[in-house]
Amino acid sequence: MAPSSKLMMVPLLALLFMSGTLEAARASNDTSADGTDHYSRSPGANGSASAPRGRLLGSSSQSVFSLDSYGARGDGSHDDTQALARAWKAACTSPRPAVLLVPSSKRYLLKVVSLSGPCKSNVTFTVKGTLVASPNRADWSDKDRSHWIVFRSVNKLTVNGGGAIDGNGDKWWPHSCKINKALNWLLFSSALQGSSNGFVVPLLHQFEGGGSENYEQSTDPHVGRGLHQCAIERLSITAPGTSPNTDGIHITRSKDVWVTDCKIKTGDDCMSIENGTHNLHVSKVVCGPGHGISIGSLGDDNSRAEVSGITIDSVQLYGTTNGARIKTYQGGSGYARDITFQNMIMYNVKNPIIIDQNYCDKAKPCGEQRSAVQVSNVVFKNIRGTTITKDAIKMNCSKNFPCQGITLQNIDLKMQGGMGNTESTCQNAKWSKSGTVHPQPCTATN
After folding, report:
1. Cβ-contact 390, 406 below 8 angstroms
2. H or E, element range at 90
3. What's the CATH superfamily of 61-167?
4. 226-252 per-position pLDDT tens digit
């Protein structure tokens, strides 16, 4: 079933290096957390103020814990990391549902911080002000370079508020090997990571700068165990088209995820969908600039990949490198199947429809190998628009594992400005068509 409007966050969430701002959309039921300090201090035994305790807001069942009540300065220059940690501890141990409040009109400078559960009650992380990542590279070790704010073992966490998360990612882009070839490491620029069992609603409105929403599973305790039954909505990500490795939304090892009403401008894939993703539903996404929406890459370094049940629906792409794309390495194994790209409009896209089972982005050419990730049961339906290259449809499939069950239905892709005719190229692809398909699919399947 589709997720409800009031959802829960998952056990692990990591807010990582980002540049610019990520703004959380104001939740419809978030009328009481208005950014003011809703706290009282009760006198201690000696007449001094005791530890802050949450005052109930709007409902007798909810307590609010403000960063300012735990020593935060909010001036953008003093370190407020420990204040956040203290506020989190109080919220997490609250016997009533709690709101951890980042007050409005302030900037809270943060280094790496881990916020752990399990919590006694549901927690809502309401960001009304701005959380700012330290721009000082000395504050980030090799171990935590890809992490900033990490939630561990937390069930039923909701993120909202209309505020901003500023990750200062532009300080890191020049140090990526994709920018500086003399360097030997690639900058990770993920924004959110999550793990299992629950709903996730970042309800994030605007994010400017290099980063991605990264949901994945790993044995690495910093990464988590994948998302299940999650929703990501009303998210806007903006990064320069030249920013390195800045996938907008990156999903892997996740199941039953909904992504809707998102606007993404990046220097890499607007969405990348990788190994272990099953039953993903994407709708109403606007993409560009960027590399488009990609399933893959899959099968890297002879690995096994399994992806199924992917629906990409009602998407607009502006000036992207690719449109609807599946990419796998030779040498991999596994499958990418039951995939639908439908109701897509493309404006001046370089490769509108592309399947590439010979993908390679290595420094050295990838040698030919016999095995491959099997691509099957893929539908491209109701796709129209313009391209800047003649090859509007490309199917470059494996000789040993041909693409099976590729359906083209109601396709209309023309050259930008009417400058010539579009074409299609196919290798080792078994396809069928229905309705009007322009350009005509390949005249042969080999």
Report:
1. no
2. helix 81-92
3. Single-stranded right-handed beta-helix, Pectin lyase-like (2.160.20.10)
4. 566 677 777 777 777 877 677 888 888
Residues of the chain with CATH 2.160.20.10: 61-167, 225-445
- 427 closest CA partner among 375, 350, 363, 365: 375
Q: Is the pTM of this model over 0.90?
A: no
What is the mean pLDDT of the segment spanning 7-28? Answer: 32
How far apart (Å, rounded) are the C-alpha atoms in residues 15 and 371?
Answer: 37
Residue 5 has pLDDT above 70, yes or no: no
Q: Is the peptide bond before 95 cis (omega within 30 degrees of 0)?
A: no
* Residues 198 and 230: beta-carbon distance below 8 Å: yes
Average pLDDT taken over every residue of the chain: 76
Residues in the chain: 446
Token pair for residue 418? 């009417």
Amino acid at 366: C
- Give pLDDT, residue 53: 43
Distance (Å) of CA 437 to CA 235, 293, 381, 422: 33, 21, 10, 11
Which tokens is 87 given? Answer: 């506020």
CA-to-CA dists, residue 41 to 35, 44, 69, 98, angstroms: 18, 9, 9, 17
**Catalytic residue numbers, as ranges:** 291
Tell me the CATH number of domain 225-445, given options 2.60.40.10, 2.30.30.280, 2.160.20.10, 3.30.460.40: 2.160.20.10
How many Cβ atoms from other residues are within 10 Å of residue 123's Cβ? 27
